[in-house]
Amino acid sequence: MPLPLPDFCSQCESTWACRLKIHQNVSLADKNTLRLEARAEWYCEVSSLDELLEAAAFALAHKLNVISLGEGSNIVLADNLPGLVIKNRIQGVTYNAEVVHTAGGENWHQLVRSTVSSGLFGLENLALIPGTVGAAPVQNIGAYGVEICDRFLSLRALHLPTLEHRSFGKKECDFAYRDSLFKRSDEWMITEVSLALSKTSEYVTTYPGIVSYIEEHGLGTTGESIFEAVSHIRAQKLPNPLVIPNVGSFFKNPVVNADQAESIATEFPDVVQYDVIAGKKLSAAWLIDQLGLKDYGVGQFAVSDKHALVIINKGNGKQQELFELVDVINRKVKDTFGIELEIEPRLYPKGFVMSC
Ligand SMILES: Cc1cc2nc3c(=O)[nH]c(=O)nc-3n(C[C@H](O)[C@H](O)[C@H](O)COP(=O)(O)OP(=O)(O)OC[C@H]3O[C@@H](n4cnc5c(N)ncnc54)[C@H](O)[C@@H]3O)c2cc1C
Questions:
Q1: Distance from the CA of 318 to the center of ligand 1, in angstroms?
Q2: For a FRET experiment, which of 29, 30, 311, 338 has its CA 20 to 30 Å from that of 88?
Q3: CB–CB of 195/170 below 8 Å?
């Protein structure tokens, strides 16, 4: 039996005392970078592990489903969220030789900047990725030839249904391309991430844009110059979500088997594809661009004219407009290339199916 709800709060009129500041019926429009309007049935922000434990205990006592929230840069809010949304604001960074331990609520880009300024390398290719450190392992963030799993040592996470707080090694996280155990389950809130860096890193400069930026600016290949190159390239290519609402790549790059890749390449010789263990990974941006969909829009939502993989909200876009745009892209890609695109951000509420 759920516990009875406590008395009304005088400050927010919720039915829960405000010591923990758990509020009812809170708008999430300014808490997701696509700026979709949706409301959380219950909402709170936590700045320490103790506060997180209290909030999770509240959810348990009242049989509320919990959704962990960082900076909302990889979620699509399709509708109002039942249950309790807990925003992780737990701060703290400590260095131990070449290992950095970081609390889940820290900003990822600030962490990368601080490691590079401290002379520790390994994260420079992941500069300017929005979001929190706690969310970074969830989809195994990656860019410019590096994924967080390449630098990963361990993390600590709270099991929301039992309040067990435990460590995970790399293997247990089951990292894959834009995926991990934590993307498949909402039961864990990541509270701390430990990464192994290096003072003498082997830099990853496989992307030609990084090399040409370094050459053009007369820089040597260092962690600082890669950080600068990546930050510059990303700022040119991707719309800043603080100015133009978006969630970065809206679709994953599809992986197809060798036969399918060959038949696409026969018909479209310019197709951008890379070898992966399961076959070939195709550039979803290339597929969408090829269909002339850059800048194509439905209502307030449109494919960015800067990057075909990014969907932007030009104003007060509504969910239905977004779904219709996604449907058009999906149908055209399927009809032309025979490929089903999969969306990269997490769709909420859980179990929601987009339909037009
Ligand atoms: C302009 C732009 C560029 C981007 N570029 C890249 C890129 O190059 N590579 C890349 O991989 N991603 C990229 N992204 C996606 C996004 O930045 C990352 O996925 C980021 O890690 C999301 O962090 P967040 O704090 O905003 O997470 P949120 O959007 O708040 O949450 C995302 C998911 O993680 C869960 N979550 C959040 N915090 C925790 C936690 N502490 N514990 C457990 N689960 C949690 C949420 O429940 C949700 O399922 C980009 C996004 C934008 C807007």
A1: 21
A2: 311
A3: no
**What's the distance, Cα to Cα, between the start and end of the chain in Å?**
39
Does residue 306 sit in the same domain as residue 283? yes
Of 178, 193, 149, nearest in space to 284 by CA? 178
CA–centroid distance, residue 161 to ligand 1 (Å): 22
Atom of ligand 1 nearest to the CA of 32: 29
Q: What percent of the chain has pLDDT over 90?
A: 84
Widest Cα–Cα separation across the chain:
68
As for ligand 1, residues whose beta carbon falls within 6 Å of it are 33, 67-75, 88, 104, 129-132, 134-136, 138-139, 141-143, 182, 188-190, 238, 241, 246-248, 346
Instruction: Give the mean pLDDT of 86-104.
Output: 97
* Planar angle of CA 198, 199, 204, nearest 5 degrees: 60
Distance CA 195, CA 267 (A): 44
Radius of gyration, alpha carbons of the chain: 21
CA-CA distance, 55 to 40, in Å (whole number)?
Answer: 15
Question: Is there a contact between 53 and 158 (Cβ–Cβ < 8 Å)?
Answer: yes
Instruction: Supply the pLDDT for residue 275.
Output: 86
For 53, the domain range is: 23-88
- Distance CA(130)–CA(311), nearest Å, equals 16
* Sheet containing 39-46: order of strands: 23-27, 39-46, 81-88, 66-69
Residues with catalytic function: 178, 249, 344
Look at residue 353 and tell me if it is in a domain.
no
Task: Tell me how far apart the alpha carbons of residues 244 and 140 are, in angstroms, rounded to a whole number.
Answer: 24
Q: Which residues contact 157 (CB under 8 A, 6 or more apart)?
A: 165, 166, 168, 182, 188, 189, 190, 191
User: Is 215 within 8 Å of 116 (Cβ atoms)?
Assistant: no
Give the CATH number, domain containing residue 73. Answer: 3.30.43.10
